[in-house]
Structure formats: structure tokens, C-alpha cells
Amino acid sequence: MIILAFESSCDETAVAVVRNGRELLADAILSQADMHALYGGVVPEIASRKHVEAIAALTDSALAQAGITRREVDAVAVTYAPGLIGAVLVGVSFAKSVAYALGVPLIPVHHVRGHIAANYLAFPDLTPPFLALAISGGNTLIVDVRDYTDMTILGATRDDAAGECFDKAARVLGLPYPGGKPMDALARQSQGGKYVLPSAHVEGAPLDMSFSGLKTAVVNLAHNAQQKGEPLDAAALAHDFTRAVSNELVPRAMEALAQTGRTKLVAAGGVAANSIIRADLERECQKRGVKLYLPPLRWCGDNGAMIGAQGYYEYCAGVTADLHLNAYATMDIDK
Predict the structure, then answer these.
(1) Mean pLDDT to the nearest integer, 184-212
(2) Which CATH superfamily groups domain 127-298?
(3) pTM score, two decimals?
(4) Fewer C-beta neighbours within 10 Å, C or N terminus of the chain?
């Protein structure tokens, strides 16, 4: 089954062609990161307009890259939630028109489910059940994946997502947007251990997380140093911040593994590209005899391939939509 997949939830326009949920035939991505870097973050209206400008030509490019014609497409998959509502609407509207014109099924895909499914493309042996740590700019979740479309949230952030905190911390340290990659590079220049940063605990919900206090602490440290004319060790702060984020994520993932008895852990999302977090996950999983699946860096960020992969399994489960499909800015992964 050949699926033409669309992803436009934030600032990447992405179109992919995927066969049977596991074989990538084409993956075309147009990033807007350089443009939004001028503003220090994503400007939703600009993102939406750029998706409109790019998506048709990118579709032609993906089909050409896959070496197929429109008539060979069996279904269309699209991210319909969550994300910037204007950006998601562009993808949903275009996907509906394509599915209608080709006379093929339309498959709605949850963005975070897609991030998890990126691992199916990278690891042919990966099958549910497993535990997933989904960490991105908009979502931070611990998910019990019982089957390809049967998922339950075990823990989640109560406020900011981990990726959002990386972007905000990067900005206050004078690093460019998006902040994840430059923060990682800066953190590797220091052993840290210089700054004491807060750790959050949610009473009655040991698997839930909170990152707003950590973000505020970094901002205050940087601003206080600037106001007092004191030196700031940016590399040490980047390292200590990253370690603080990892200390929120990794122990909770290990606790969730213990509670569920799962023996496989999947990382997913843009923050899964961070070298310190990856190393911490590898170390802790090795201690416990847990099989860890870390997606290749190219599939940590937003892409259409992940939507095509999850779209296949959604279709197999009987999940399709008609032309009334709408876009949603927020939606739980288990809805």
C-alpha cells in the first residue's frame, strides 16, 4: 500500500511517500527555520502562508523522487492534530483535496503518534508493545504503546514542553533559533556542575513533569548576571540545564518501564536528538536490560515519513476520514 503523507504542524512543510508503513520511497522537507530565526521563534501567520506557497510543488517533488505517478497512490495521510492551527489547516485542506481528486481514502494522523512511528522506518524489528518517550517542542509524554493504534498516556508535562524550554534557554544565552542543536553543541563544551537548577515533582503523579520553573531559573540566572555585570559561563549553564531536563525525563521513563513491565523503550521527537539525553537513556536502559530504540537524527524532527508510517497502521485499524475532517491545535494522543 502506497501512502502519500503530509505534515505541516509547525514550520516544516513535509511530503513523503511510504509503502506499507515501513518502506520510505520519498521524503521531501522544506524548513522555514532560517526565516523564523529572524524573530527568535515561529510566527504562526508566516508559517501558514509559507506552507501554502510550498506544499503543491513539494508534493510533485516527492512523487518524482519516489518514481510513481498520482494514479499509484493508494491513500493520503495527514497530520490533523496537534500543532499551530493555521499551519495544520493548510496540510489538512490540501490533503483533502488530493484524496478527493484521486478518489482514495483520507487518513488522519496524530502528530505525536507520527513521531513514535518514525522508529518503524528505522527499525524493521520494532513492534508493539513498548514504552515511548515522546519529547518535542510542543509535547512531552510517556506513552504506553500497546498496539500500533492503542496508546495510553502514563505521564506528561503539566506546563511547558521540553523542546520549548530548550528554545527559550537558547535565546537567553544568545543562541540562534531553533535552540536544540546549538544548545547541544554548547553543552558539550563543559562538564557542568556549576549551576544549581530546580527539579519539579507533581504530587500524586510521579510520572508527570514540569519544566516552567527550570526555564524561569535559567532566564533569571542569565538576566541577573547581565544586570550585575557578572560573567556567565554559558557552556556550563547549557550543560547543567540539559542535565536538569534529562533528570526530569530519564528517571520517569525508567519508572514507567518498571511499572508496566515493558522491555522496550522508544524515544521520539526533536529533543530525542540531544546527545546528553541519548547517552543517559542508553546508560540507564543498558543497566536494566531494556532494548532502546533511538531514531536517527534525520527522523527526530518533523517529517512526512513518520505520518506515512503511522498512517498505514491507522488505515489497517479502520481509521479514515471524510471531507469534513478538521484540524485541531490540541488533542491527546489516546483520543
Answers:
(1) 92
(2) ATPase, nucleotide binding domain (3.30.420.40)
(3) 0.94
(4) C
